[in-house]
Design goal:
This protein has 480 residues and is an alpha+beta fold. It has two domains: 242 residues, Glutamine Phosphoribosylpyrophosphate, subunit 1, domain 1; 172 residues, Rossmann fold (3-Layer(aba) Sandwich), CATH 3.40.50. It is built from 17 helices and 26 strands. The strands form seven sheets. It has a seven-stranded antiparallel beta sheet with strand order 4-3-5-2-11-10-12. A six-stranded antiparallel beta sheet has the order 6-7-8-9-13-14, with no helix packed on it. A five-stranded parallel beta sheet has the order 19-18-23-24-25. β23, α13 and β24 form a beta-alpha-beta unit. The structure holds 1-O-pyrophosphono-5-O-phosphono-alpha-D-ribofuranose (PRP), glutamine and magnesium ion (MG). The site of glutamine has 17 residues, from β7.
Length: 480
């Protein structure tokens, strides 16, 4: 299996539109602005004039999947859903690229999913024992089998009952000829927003940056445990469960979401900048300049510079054309991948004491390489400042860090990490600092954030993942 050389992999973007003359094109543009969430493959499904649904999907970036004009042009009809994938469950082939389209005798149904289900394997086993035949090995498909097996003629009632059976992280779009449904898991792990175009069409998508791109105005964030139904009578919100607790993924704020997006009222760039400011208060260092690691930590670096009064310098350059280097994920080749991506600006860093800001350390490949790079470029010292706490615990709700063994902070103490990386000092933002910096207007635990990858406090049972869960060596508490 090959994998993209990235420290953290993205986690899928979804986009849906109801009653827009240019539904497929609008979905294309929306997905384009969500491309940072997944680059393995993309697809769009529309409702045709005859009420049947039509799909086109392909591997790679959106522009690769839709490389010929007719691929988009054939997708006529005013209602659509689309998806860009980075897989968290199942293989990386075309069969798992979404949306999934099902042709039933009565009607067609399409599904698009962002997140990772934690009980998909056990549900699938039960369903197969009951005669279900799965077409893919992705967790996403389970929902369709559950819907089909529910009794009753009312599609929405069957969907709601099925949503109560799946566990873990999910933002789902479900399209039929009668309605576009959007559902968010009871913890709201993944972002999902509703907006509207001036022509009256409704949009539901992963991030507000996609609303801005297509010219829609923001209406609201979908709430945990909520089902939104959009049809020709307008849009309607109702809970499919009342057992909810907001636990939006803090990594969305730290790393995943685009800086121009706003989630639950908090702009991503400004949240990252506050993380950088707080880090400067918690960990001042003896430095001449601040250097951010492009791309995702540039906002945090600007915050560190503003708070410390040090100049924010362009000491590192990212080659924007290397993001899609798919090679075997051995450590040696991963290092080669990082070398292709990042270079030092020698004139800026030579002779300087550098405060180097990055947003996270996963395996440590990036930090290890950059510290060496800056020193080779003549930096006098390099203090590494991370604008989030150490990533010690795996995530099962949609981020691709499911393995404790691979997480550097799960296996080494901070002084050990510092020595391995070769930095002059290493500092992480405190958990309290992170929660304050994001500043979500919520009274839920951790102010509405999931911070399980930092402290092991998972807001739900781990279901299928519980049996193989491994404590980090550096764990400070023993989990039940
Ligand atoms: O410790 P590591 O395993 O190296 O992973 C950590 C790095 O991965 C992420 O960046 P990424 O390379 O994905 O690129 P980006 O910041 O440009 O999105 C993250 O922002 C860190 O820089
Ligand atoms: N990253 C995601 O949200 C992935 C969705 C789904 N679990 C898949 O693997 O396709
Ligand atoms: Mg990075």
């Amino acid at each position: 299996m090959s994998a993209e050389i990235k420290g953290l992999n993205e986690e899928c973007g979804i986009f849906g539109v109801w009653q827009d003359e240019h539904a497929a094109e609008r979905t294309y543009f929306g997905l384009h602005s969500l491309q940072h969430r997944g680059q393995e493959g993309a697809g769009i499904v529309t409702v045709q004039a005859n009420g049947r649904l039509l799909e086109h999907k392909g591997l790679g970036l959106l522009a690769d999947a839709f490389s010929k004009p007719e691929q988009l042009a054939q997708l006529t009809g005013p209602c659509a859903i689309g998806h860009v994938r980075y897989g968290t469950a199942g293989t990386h082939g075309i069969e798992n690229i979404q949306p999934f389209l099902f042709h039933f005798a009565q009607e067609d149904v399409a599904l698009a999913h962002n997140g990772n289900l934690t009980n998909a394997v056990s549900l699938r086993t039960e369903l197969e024992q009951d005669g279900a035949i799965f077409r893919t090995d992705s967790d996403t498909e389970v929902l369709m089998h559950l819907i089909q097996r529910q009794k009753g003629a009312d599609f929405k009632a069957r969907l709601k009952a099925s949503l109560r059976e799946i566990k873990g992280g999910f933002a789902y779009l479900v399209l039929t000829k009668n309605a576009l449904y959007a559902a968010l898991d009871p913890n709201g792990f993944r972002p999902l927003v509703v907006g509207r175009l001036d022509n009256g069409a409704y949009i539901v998508c992963s991030e507000t940056c996609a609303l801005d791109t297509v010219g829609a105005h923001f209406i609201r964030d979908v709430q945990p445990g909520e089902l939104i139904t959009i049809d020709d009578s307008g849009y309607h919100c109702e809970p499919f469960t009342t057992e909810t607790q907001l636990s939006i993924c803090s990594m969305e704020y730290i790393y995943f979401a685009r800086p121009d997006s706003t989630i639950y009222g908090v702009n991503i760039h400004q949240a990252r900048q506050r993380m950088g400011r707080r880090l400067a208060q918690e960990s001042p260092v003896d430095a001449d300049i601040v250097v951010g690691v492009p791309n995702s930590s540039l906002s945090a670096a600007s915050g560190y510079a503003l708070e410390s009064g040090l100049p924010d310098e362009l000491g590192l350059i990212k080659n924007q054309y290397s993001a899609r280097t798919f090679i075997q994920p051995t450590q040696e080749l991963r290092e080669q991948g990082v070398r292709m991506k990042l270079a030092a600006v020698k004139a800026v860093v030579a002779g300087k004491k550098v405060a180097l800001v990055d947003d996270s350390i996963v395996r440590g490949t990036t930090s290890n390489y950059i510290v060496r790079l800056l020193k080779e470029a003549g930096a006098k010292s390099v203090h590494l400042l991370i604008s989030s706490p150490p990533l010690k615990y795996p995530c099962f709700y949609g981020i691709d860090i499911e393995n404790t063994q691979e997480l550097m902070a799960a296996n080494y103490t901070i002084p050990e990490m510092c020595a391995k990386i070769g930095a002059d000092s290493l500092h992480f933002l405190s958990l309290e600092g992170l929660i304050d910096a994001i500043d979500l207007p919520s009274h839920e635990p951790n102010r509405g954030l999931c911070v399980a990858y930092f402290n092991g406090d998972y807001p739900t049972p781990l279901y299928d993942y519980a049996a193989t869960f491994k404590q980090p060596k550096t764990a400070t508490k023993v989990m039940q």
